[in-house]
Design brief:
This protein is α/β, with parallel strands linked by helices and 574 residues long. It is 25% helix and 13% strand. The protein has 15 helices and 16 strands. The protein has helices at 36-40, 43-49, 84-96, 115-120, 188-203, 247-257, 277-283, 316-329, 348-351, 360-372, 402-414, 418-428, 465-469, 475-488, 490-494; strands at residues 17-20, 53-56, 100-105, 134-135, 162-165, 170-173, 208-211, 267-271, 293-295, 337-338, 377-381, 496-500, 507-514, 517-524, 541-545, 564-570. The strands form 3 sheets. An 8-stranded parallel sheet has the order 9-8-7-3-2-1-11-10. Strands 12-13-14-16-15 form a 5-stranded antiparallel sheet. The chain has a 3-stranded antiparallel sheet with strand order 4-6-5, with no helix packed on it. Strand 12 and strand 13 (507-514) form a beta hairpin. Helix 10 (360-372) packs parallel to helix 14 and helix 11 (402-414) runs antiparallel to helix 12. The radius of gyration is 24 Å and the shape is globular. The two termini are 22 Å apart. The structure holds 1-O-alpha-D-glucopyranosyl-D-fructose (TEU) and calcium ion. Calcium ion binds next to loops.
């Protein structure tokens, strides 16, 4: 049993992961869609940032109904992104620079174009029928009639979780689009085929797996109606389609079959929407040999009202309460993933930073400082290191996301308030993080020589990598310094966490302690200049501040707008 704070020696304990959404990162052939050669061309950029792992979102053959999270061939590369040779070159390029490659696998569901599903749906008796979740119409109901779905479940994109296959007269389950049928993990053949696929990727040099919605692979059987109103990010713990009774068993089996097949220490990360901290502590406890860390969603809910695209004012005390709860719950033997954004979330600087343009950079640096000084593994989503912001979407046609279109259509029928859903999508929509990476101030931000699949943010003339790489005071270099601090100090990666000022709605403050070294982080989440209600005499070594000129006129006891500071001291009491 590893004791709290005991040195945990896996390489990823002080690593920083950078997520690339290939479609929007760099386009090498002018078709307006990012691709693998484009990623390869930017490896020196990632190396200069100092990140350790590249997490690549799906690049596999896919009809692209959900931008690749609907896979039709697990062992290939979609021609729009390149070839397997390109992928091998990417992995080799990362390894030659001392970086690692984590691939994103979607194994709760496949595309409906996957050969397994086209076989499975042929008839009720074929060998692949039980590879998916098929059920007859609800007793007493005619297939296709309203209410005939086997259960009342509503999926993540707001639609019913069952679609009738006219051919066979049965329904199949899909917790996302109808083009994403759920695999039946109760079938051992399915599991073994997926483990074999994962081992195939290990043989190609993969160093880890990000597993999409992996807590959905164990459903609660027999399948029954849900008694709680659940939506994508608001479902109560124990929802019938998440975190079912066999999840730990499946994760442990996967670890034996996949991690156990290599001497490499892999990084395994499970995306687990709706999981609560107490469950996560079990999944990530090394003694349980299940998974290294998980993506949880609790802090992604603090600014959502009844629906995923129903933005509400959020409170700093709520943010501190949830992040603090997860730090405490995973303090001993668990492990956190730390993130503000990814390809499913809007840009953190627009969501949690200042509305004032002149405070955008300060907001980005402050948010980065707070996140990267927590205990766990920090994730940087492409462009976050530049302070990239939400795009000024106007009409529904500006978006290119199935989740946006579904949500709009559901709002049309449910409330009729299409302005409200559009406002919600503008603030929280996934496409905000999917607009092209901003490399420079030229046309299309250097992302493509063609027409980009999503428009480039007009602010790229000011917010771009080229200008920031040459500016030591930029957001880019602040991220680089934070990564360097994590690599240098065990206190950052392993130190115990204590939240301070839990009831303060302006300042986020906490300490990290490891042996006799203690760090203090104080961050101002406001546009004002609050007093720092802490004993400045105790903290005399300033490690870092997000303002270029050291402490402001207010000295150590006053923070400037959206400023964060890191202090260090030696303690004798530890
Ligand atoms: O997201 C799953 C998930 O947690 C959803 O609630 C997600 O936040 C949703 O997309 C809300 O808009 C994963 C992938 O990250 C996402 O891109 C995919 O669309 C989804 O699974 C299905 O594979
Ligand atoms: Ca391309």
């Amino acid at each position: 049993m590893t004791s709290p704070g005991q040195a945990m020696t896996e390489w990823w304990r002080n690593a920083v992961v950078y997520q690339v959404y290939p479609r929007s990162f760099a386009d090498s052939n002018g078709d307006g869609i990012g691709d693998l050669p484009g990623v390869i061309a930017k490896l020196d950029y990632l190396k200069s940032l100092g990140v350790d792992v590249l997490w690549l979102s799906p690049f596999y053959p896919s009809p692209q109904v959900d931008n690749g999270y609907d896979i039709s061939d697990y062992r290939g590369v979609d021609p729009m992104f390149g070839t397997l040779d390109d992928l091998d070159a990417l992995i080799a390029g990362l390894h030659s620079r001392g970086m690692k490659f984590m691939t994103d696998i979607v194994i709760n569901h496949t595309s409906d174009q996957h050969p397994w599903f086209t076989e499975s749906r042929k008839n009720r008796t074929n060998a692949k029928r039980d590879w998916y979740i098929w059920r007859s119409a609800r007793a007493g109901h005619t297939p296709g009639a309203p209410g005939a779905e086997p259960t009342n479940w509503v999926g993540f994109f707001g639609e019913k979780a069952w679609t009738l296959d006219e051919e066979s007269g049965e329904y199949y389950m899909h917790l996302f689009c109808k083009e994403q049928p759920d695999l039946n993990w109760e079938n051992a053949d399915v599991r073994q085929e997926l483990y074999a696929m994962m081992r195939w990727w290990l043989a190609r040099g993969v160093d880890g797996f990000r597993m999409d919605v992996i807590n959905l692979i164990s459903k609660t059987y027999p399948l029954a109606d849900s008694t709680t109103k659940t939506s994508a990010t608001h479902f109560e713990a124990g929802a019938l389609f998440a975190g079912g009774p066999r999840l730990g068993e499946f994760l442990a089996e996967m670890r034996r079959e996949v991690n156990g097949s290599t001497d490499k220490v892999l990084l395994t990360v499970g995306e687990m929407p709706g999981t609560v901290a107490s469950d996560a502590a079990g999944y990530t406890n090394p003694d349980n040999s299940q998974i290294d860390m998980i993506f949880q969603f609790e802090h992604m809910d603090i600014d959502r009202g009844t629906g995923r695209y129903d933005p509400i004012p959020w409170r700093l005390t709520d943010l501190k309460r949830t992040l603090g709860r997860w730090q405490d719950a995973l303090a001993g033997t668990g492990w956190n993933s730390l993130y503000w954004g990814n390809h499913d979330q809007s840009r953190p600087v627009s969501r949690f930073g200042s509305a004032r343009l002149e405070l955008r950079e300060h907001s980005a640096k402050m948010l980065a400082t707070v996140l990267h000084l927590h205990r766990g593994t920090p994730y940087i989503y492409q462009g976050e290191e530049l302070g990239m912001a939400n795009y000024p979407f106007e009409t529904l046609e500006d978006f290119d996301d199935v989740d946006a279109y579904n949500s709009y259509r559901i709002a049309q029928t449910d409330t009729g308030d299409t302005e409200a859903i559009l406002a919600g999508l503008r603030h929280l929509g996934r496409d905000n993080s999917r607009t092209p990476m901003q490399w420079d101030a030229t046309t299309n931000a250097g992302f493509t020589t063609g027409t980009p699949w999503l428009p480039v943010n007009p602010n790229h003339v000011d917010v771009n990598a080229a200008v920031q790489i040459n500016d030591a005071g930029s957001v880019f270099h602040h991220y680089r310094r934070l990564i360097g601090l994590r690599h240098a100090l065990d206190t950052v990666s392993l130190g115990s966490f204590e939240m301070l000022l839990p009831e303060d709605e302006t300042i986020y403050a906490f300490t990290r302690t490891h042996g006799s070294e203690q760090l203090l982080v104080v961050a101002n989440f406001s546009d004002n200049e609050p007093e720092v209600p802490l004993d400045a005499a105790d903290w005399n070594q300033l490690v870092m501040t997000t303002y270029p000129d050291g402490l402001g006129p207010g000295g150590p006891t006053r923070l400037r707008p959206r400023e964060a500071r890191i202090y260090r001291r030696r303690t004798t009491t530890h």
